[in-house]
Design goal:
- With 429 residues, the protein is an alpha+beta fold.
- It folds into three domains: 169 residues, no CATH class; 65 residues, no CATH class; 137 residues, Lysozyme (Orthogonal Bundle), CATH 1.10.530.10.
- Helices cover 32% and strands 18% of the residues.
- The chain is built from ten helices and 20 strands.
- Strands 2, 3, 4, 6, 9, 14 and 16 form a seven-stranded antiparallel sheet that branches.
- Strand 2 and strand 3 form a beta hairpin.
- Helix 9 packs antiparallel against helix 10.
């Protein structure tokens, strides 16, 4: 059933656009939610969240995905960036999505489920004013303790965001198991134990809606005796569900698979087992006739070169094609008034050090390798294709200035991402 968020008590989980989100607090300006699905992302090249790649990702691609393309649904809030040692050099940051501060982690301690792995807060350990070499950021360990790690490392994040308290969301006020009797559940549990516990009973198996588009990692509690589990189910039936689902009670107790020891030696089979003959793997098509834009076919040799570079540097082939498409329309002789050259439009300022690395950006093959190398570095640094494209086009400093100003997409990056989608669909045919 649908109900207004304001009717759901803190500590309950709601369905927000198909994602499980914990209600943290009802405020005057809205309701603060925490996305329970942990994502992995580097904090950035600085421990100042306002200028970090994590902020850019959360308030750009992540926000659009979370809200199904309706980012205005999320309310801008002010995040305190006071360091652990009390330094206020970073001040505050106005944004729509951000991890919790260290103070908020303490505030919501009693209702926060523990993370699967270390996850970022926005609180720096100290600031450059205190320690010029410091890059540490505070965060929450899976044990429940707090610690700090270097901002350049990739760790987890469960972002928090503010929505209107009057917004209606899906919330269940009935027990999804009530269509089954305690006896029916107990019989099923005993049956499964008799079959050596081949599988566990979950709410999804017995009537709950299917998981959302993202993979869920459900926390499970193990109860040994079947009788205990049956009693737990009976208690759930008697109590019923309140509006929403408690974060602590989200997981349905599952029956562990029993470990059965046997001293009997299995008898050998009458006939030796024969491994199935693997089917031959078809050779990859290294070049295609449909890699064309504005009537320009990307030369077959260059298609092979680009695929090889993408494989070497871990870059999606479709993304490299998209960049070459927008930058040069597949013209290996393209040159701009700003001294950018070749298929990937490598600026002259980079030619010297690329040559020292054995990469000649003035040759078509070398130009491709240089462009793919840049994309690889930016994908590693920022963790998102569009942010990487922004850094590719504007330079890392220019991109970070845009992110600090709240801009996470440009005309150029949108063009590249549109072509990225196009080339992905072409390559899938």
């Amino acid at each position: 059933m649908k109900t207004a968020v304001q009717n759901i008590a803190p500590g309950k989980v709601i369905d927000y656009h198909g994602e499980p989100c914990l209600v943290l607090e009802h405020r005057k300006d809205g309701t603060l939610l925490l996305h329970l699905e942990q994502m992995t992302h580097a904090f950035g090249s600085t421990n100042n969240f306002a200028a970090s790649s994590l902020r850019a990702h959360l308030n750009g691609p992540y926000l659009r995905s979370l809200t199904d393309g309706n980012p205005d649904e999320v309310i801008t809030r002010t995040v305190d960036l006071t360091a652990l040692n009390g330094s206020t050099e970073y001040g505050t940051c106005d944004c729509k999505v951000a991890p919790l501060t260290l103070d908020e982690l303490r505030k919501y301690h009693d209702i926060l489920p523990l993370p699967e792995r270390f996850e970022w807060s926005v609180t720096p350990w100290s600031t450059p004013k205190v320690n010029e070499d410091d890059t540490w950021v505070m965060g929450l360990l899976s044990s429940g303790n707090v610690s700090n790690y270097d901002c350049g490392l990739s760790f987890g994040s469960r972002p928090a965001f503010l929505i209107s308290s009057s917004l209606t969301v899906e919330a269940e006020d009935t027990n999804p198991l009530e269509q089954y009797t305690v006896r029916e559940l107990a019989e099923e549990l005993f049956r499964r134990i008799g079959n050596k516990g081949v599988s566990s009973v979950t709410t999804h198996e017995i009537g709950q809606r299917a998981p959302s588009r993202h993979a869920r990692r459900k926390r499970r509690r193990n109860y040994g005796p079947v009788i205990i589990l049956a009693l737990v189910c009976a208690a759930i039936f008697a109590a019923g569900y309140c509006v929403g689902v408690s974060a602590a009670d989200k997981a349905v107790p599952t029956l562990p698979e029993p470990v059965l020891e046997s001293s009997a030696t299995p008898e050998p089979s009458a006939e030796p087992s024969v491994a199935p003959t693997p089917s031959p793997t078809p050779e990859a098509v290294l070049w295609r006739d449909d890699i064309v834009t504005d009537g320009n076919l990307l030369d077959y040799d260059l298609q092979v070169t680009m695929q090889a570079c993408c494989e070497e540097y871990g870059v999606p082939y479709a993304l490299a094609l998209a960049v070459a498409d927008v930058e040069s329309r597949f013209d290996p002789d393209a040159a701009s008034s700003t001294n950018d050259y070749g298929l990937m439009q490598i600026n002259q300022v980079n030619h010297g050090w690329l040559l020292e690395q054995g990469i000649d950006p003035m040759t078509p093959a070398g130009n491709i390798e240089a462009g793919v190398l840049f994309l690889s570095d930016y994908l590693t640094a920022y963790g998102d294709p569009e942010l990487a494209v922004m850094a590719y086009n504007c330079g890392p400093s220019g991109a970070q200035n845009l992110w600090a100003a709240g801009t996470y997409s440009t005309d150029h990056s949108r063009k590249v991402m549109d072509r990225f989608d196009y080339w992905t669909s072409v390559l899938e045919d």
